[in-house]
Amino acid sequence: MKVLQKADPEIAEIILAEQQRQADTLELIASENHVSGPVLVALGSILTDKYAEGYPGKRYYCGNTNIDSVETICIERAKKLFGAEHANVQPHCGTSANLAVYMACLKPGDKIMGMELAHGGHLSHGMRLNVSGLFYNTSTYGVDPKTERLDMGQVRKLVLEQRPALLIAGASAYPRIIDFEAFGQIAREAGCLLMADIAHIAGLVAAGVHPSPLPHATFVTTTNHKTLRGPRGGVILCTSEWAKRIDAAVFPGLQGGPLEHVIAAKAVAFCEAMKPEFKQYAAAIIANAKALADELLARQWRLVSGGTDNHMLMIDLRTRRPDLTGHQAAGWLAAAGIITNKNSIPFDQRKPMHTSGIRMGTPAVTTRGMGPAEMKAVADWIDKVLSSDGDQAVIDEVSKQVLEMCRQFPIPNNPTCADIE
Ligand code: DSN
User: pLDDT digits over 256-315, tens only?
Assistant: First the structure.
């Protein structure tokens, strides 16, 4: 860091400020986490210098011996971690991974079917303004209005009516178990391919605390940086039959040179996720989410679907505070040091920039070693802030307590920037 401080103090200062912000706030954004020191070191390595278009053993440029070793190890670890026949570790992000699957198995104009964005789906599953919605013909399934859960009978009915070429299972705002086995049966019955996007739950799947989509889905895509606690970026897992077409879709289809420093960091994270401690970590994420949910329910906050089975929960603000938007609520919480995001809830009347809900998740606070007792305090603070009408005195008082807890639970194994010379 000293090197950067000397060469570019402007950027160094911002990095240090962000480090302090992360240390001093509670990260409850369900898709965020704190990576380990080893992951950070790999990410900041000189592997970034190398061009490596192609795949191990088949590169366009010379000098890739070490890069080939890194990428091969990463591929083998990804396969082992999830029990997959083939892995492509080059996608720069989750959306790139999804697009590569579409490129590999669809023609523009083919039908895809994913979960309704407003019910918890993802932009890259066919949203009309996203490339997935522009190039492919999208239809959707949603949650049941009463239970706010997926009704697999209803999904089956819609799939058999719509006959998509590719069915997509996976969500970015769904607090319940996804029944990948039922999705697999439906896809087989309808004669379509199935892609499972496990970006949010990959760490839970890897640890065996959420059912795996393998072998039910032909394609499984994920990011690495949510519950899996790796660097930003994506991965595609698939059956051997699709290996060549997936690899060709990623490169040269969609991307240029792979980010080998990121691939090295993915490999480090996959190694960490194979350790017994990671199983305990993943189980603790869920225990914390359930504890936070129970404490909020006890304070009369309604949760979408009534609770959670995974790492996330969503508050429906309307029952306690019909006038309060997710935008305002997340702003007040952030001012108190509790970082969440506004999120549409199923059948939300408000627009996505306002929303009637907030989404929160426990991967990052669990990384800091917090447990159910801390979740009780967090629920209490959330309740106080949301009941306060944004009262500055309440926000100030809560932010003091948040800071105290953050000091008790520092981000572990995270080298300070000063350690990275
Ligand atoms: N932005 C991610 C999330 O927060 O869920 C999805 O891409």
Answer: 999 999 999 999 999 999 999 999 999 999 999 999 999 999 999 999 999 999 999 999
Cα–Cα distance between 352 and 327 in angstroms, integer? 9
Residues 13-47 pLDDT 10s? 999 999 999 999 999 999 999 999 999 999 999 99
Cα distance between residue 351 and residue 327, in whole Å: 10
**How far does residue 66's CA lie from ligand 1's centre (Å)?**
33
Indicate whether 221 and 290 sit together in one domain. Answer: no
The domain containing residue 127 runs over which residues? 40-273
Closest C-alpha residue for ligand 1 atom 6:
172
Domain final residue pick, 242, 273, 304: 273
The residue whose two tokens read 């008082």 is 397
236 plus 352 within the same structural domain? no
Which of the listed residues 119, 172, 312 should we mutate to test ligand 1's pocket, taking the one with most ligand atoms within 8 A of CB?
172
The question of whether 71 is a catalytic residue gets the answer: no
Residue 223 designated active-site: yes
C-alpha–C-alpha distance, residues 28 and 13, integer Å:
25
Encode burial over 199-227: b for 16+ CB neighbours within 10 A, e otherwise.
Answer: bbbbbbbbbebbebbbebbbbbbbbbbbb
Identify whether 383 is a catalytic site residue: no
Residue 355 sits at φ, ψ, to 5 deg, of 65, 165
